[in-house]
Amino acid sequence: MTPGNYTIRAYRGDTLQLTFTITDGSNVAIDLSTAAVLMQVRTHPDGDLKMTFAEGDGLTVGGAGNNIVTVSKVVALDGCAYQYDLQATFATGVVVTYVRGAFVVTEDITT
Fold first, then answer.
1. What is the pTM of this model?
2. d(Cα 79, Cα 15) in Å, to the nearest integer?
């Protein structure tokens, strides 16, 4: 499966709030209730880890099909264009990356 590509635009110091709905190619919900879901932000794909979103730390999984991933966390990064992906590791050991892309942070003015 090829991950979807989505650019996240965030403002330094603000709370990033967004939702991903995870479905298969037929638009059927993919149940993430038994998966460990993780999103990481890095300087580039193999670069320094800058920010992590995990269940209980800026990320929740819910919805009727257990396929709604909600991200909510203060962006504590300097203004820059980073890279991220959203990945699920299932109890069977299968790992699937569902979304990836640029994570663009704009510097704030008001502190």
1. 0.93
2. 15
Reading the block at residue 63, the tokens are 């919805």
pLDDT in tens, 46-67: 999 999 999 999 999 999 999 9
d(CA 104, CA 102): 6
d(CA 45, CA 3): 14
Q: Do residues 103 and 83 lie in contact, with contact meaning Cβ atoms separated by under 8 Å?
A: yes
CA distance 106 to 51: 15
CA angle 101, 47, 100 (to 5 degrees): 15
Residues 6 or more apart in contact with residue 41 via CB below 8 angstroms:
49, 50, 51, 52, 77, 82, 83, 84, 103
